[in-house]
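Hi R.,

Here's the chain you asked about this morning:
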Amino acid sequence: MAIFDDGAKAFLEAYTYFSNLLGKGREKLAKEFAEQATGVKAPNNLEPVIPGSEVIRIPSKTEKGELISINSQLSNPMKSDFINSKMDGTVGNRYAVLKSELDRMSPQVTQDLQYAKDNQLALTTIQKNNLVQNVKLERQLKQELKRLETDLIADKKDPQMIMDAYKQSTSRLREIDEYSKSKSELRIKNNTVNKYDSKGYGPNESVFRTITRNFLTAEQKAGRIEMPTNIYQRISFGGVDPVVDPIKLFRYHYGDDAFDKIPVEKLEELFANKGLREQDYKYILREAGITPVNKKGPQQYEGYFTPKELKAELNDIDELNNIILAGDSPFYKTKSEMVYAIKNNNNRRAEFASILKDMEFKKMLDEEITPDFIKQVAPKKETPIVRESLDDEAVEIAEQKILDDENVIDMEDYFDKDDFARGGIVSVI
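And here is the predicted structure, written out as tokens:
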């Protein structure tokens, strides 16, 4: 057989490679592989290949990962529940869905065949079978599409117009999905930022954490602040605690603006020259005018959070619950595991929600109970009994005023009887 053009030569080289690769008795399949890999039709009088040297180059790990149709058997879209769920039962829709799957599959198979041929790869028996099965699947899809195409034409419908309309609709759905994904990623990013609501988080974060941990320990010993014993013990042992963050503690006791007063450069210079002791932090920060704004700390560590940080934690728990219920969590798969995980998450959520409720309610009371407001509710003639109950009366009136104010969230409506924030609790039956 004379070979005169480059196309025929490329086909013969591919045919020789696949014949040797697949072995005797698979010449027809080798011809099919060679045609797909080269895009050249086989000559009419194709002579059998005389067995030559076996292909010896073994694909690398990287190559194996990229050669999808060689290293795995592709899913049959005609039997896939997921693919079938996209179909509406009409011939046109079935044609469009399966044609899309074929258009996605064929380039991968062709690319892998070309790569194996060009690099003279040696394949294992499993890899050869994968390739054979995937090419057979591709052939079955083409046969089914040919049948559907015939039915559409007989029904005076244009397969190409149906395909164009389907692509246009899926493209729009893809744009919507990408937009939703972008919004979700942005929301997650913003929520992460909200979990660190302080000037202490930034370029000097690690430095601030070291300084504030030593300073807080010295101040607790001196009696200038009162942290709960368990929190004090966790930061006084040295090192980085995975839960308790000194930045949040410092912000609560000294105010967020106090970070602006910390003489970082002076402390770093002293540390470089002679090292720093605990009392050095205490005296230097006191000299900088850093004094407590809240002496006594809250009983729970979460009480050191800001409302923004608490809301971010609630959002995280809601997101985690949604992932678990959707079955997308790799850790909780069975119903009992999901119920247990969500129950624990909801218990944590209740703690955060309760603290947030108290914070926001106290803030609204602080804004409403002013000296002028107390004068308005005070009776003209005060008696000792009236004077004793005056503050309680002012608080009750302020509470009612807040709850009646259209511009303020009704806290009893926003939080349910179990102190769970509405809109976030997930129930599992």
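One quick note: Residues 234 and 242 are 10 Å apart (CA to CA).

Cheers,
M.
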